[in-house]
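Practice problem. Given the sequence and the SMILES for 0OW, write out the predicted structure.
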Amino acid sequence: MNNSDYENYIKLKDQLNIYRRQYYTEDAPTVQDFEYDRLYQELLKVESAHPEWVTNDSPSQNVGGAINSAFPKFRHEIPMLSMDDVFSLEESQASAERIKKFVNQTDVEFNLELKIDGLALSLIYENGRLVKGSTRGDGFVGEDITPNIFQIDDVPKTIPLKERIEVRGECYLGKDSFAELNNKRLEDGKSTFANPRNAAAGSLRQLDSSITKSRHLQTFIYFVIEPENYGLKTQSEALKQLQEWGFATNNQNRVVNDFKEVQNYIDEYQEKRLDLPYNIDGIVFKVNDFKLQSLLGNTVKVPRWEFAYKFPPIEAHTHLRTIEWT
Ligand SMILES: NC(=O)c1c(N)nc(OC2CCCC2)nc1O[C@@H]1CCC[C@@H]1O
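Answer key:
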């Protein structure tokens, strides 16, 4: 073993862990997402060549980040997992093919969803009333932020369902609210947030829930725990049911069967993303049928039935790009 390769690997792992702490725990990253993604993919490549070097403090073995101990801890009954990222159409096609092969079916339907650039949250309702709100934390133990969840206008405080249910989604700050917040902070001589995702995380993980209320956070709920318990058969059906129960859902999802439709959806939202009122950083591919999802199951860190295609980073100049009408 070439010692310097191992030393470089350890340096890369330690650097990524510093970036994760800044992003997940301090809500104040010092690198752009695409730079983090690039280094993370480099770590994965080294680890697949040297699996014997991998230890459980590696970013590849953990989801999310450490929690802020000021909040009560909340252990998730079912871990809040993350998702593997792919960075090209070809890779997304290969991932889709791998899934089809795993279930030995050629016509697997995928539900495509916009990947909202926010932070994951979990909501629990008992007898139709909101009783618990928590962050993902490290995927197993998150922060109990229930008082703050009650300050988010689009989170229903009651739903027309008597059974106990847990739903999950993304908390985000719209682009306009983000600009207003940062302008106000500038006027008050305060530091500004790097991007809407960090502003949302900083606002949701506030100890003073009146500050959370002032930040106009929003949510998109996209996940029902044990959906079969509510007679739901597919992810697209679950999104409709969530909306009927009163949750804020993102209706730009699309059920697709073949790769041409995937390409159309990705092209369409690569274009539209600058005009959307919220940040997205990719597209989430989910096997639509819940029975197939159960067949695929989860790995230690990510479900096998979903993955994310990440858009290339928005270069500063593209904002200024004039559209050449052909
Ligand atoms: N950010 C999103 O818009 C998004 C989405 N539309 N759908 C999912 O599905 C979950 C289901 C099980 C694991 C991922 N996750 C999303 O975001 C994840 C949550 C945690 C890390 C990513 O942000």
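Check your answer against the key. DSSP finds ten helices and eleven strands in the chain.
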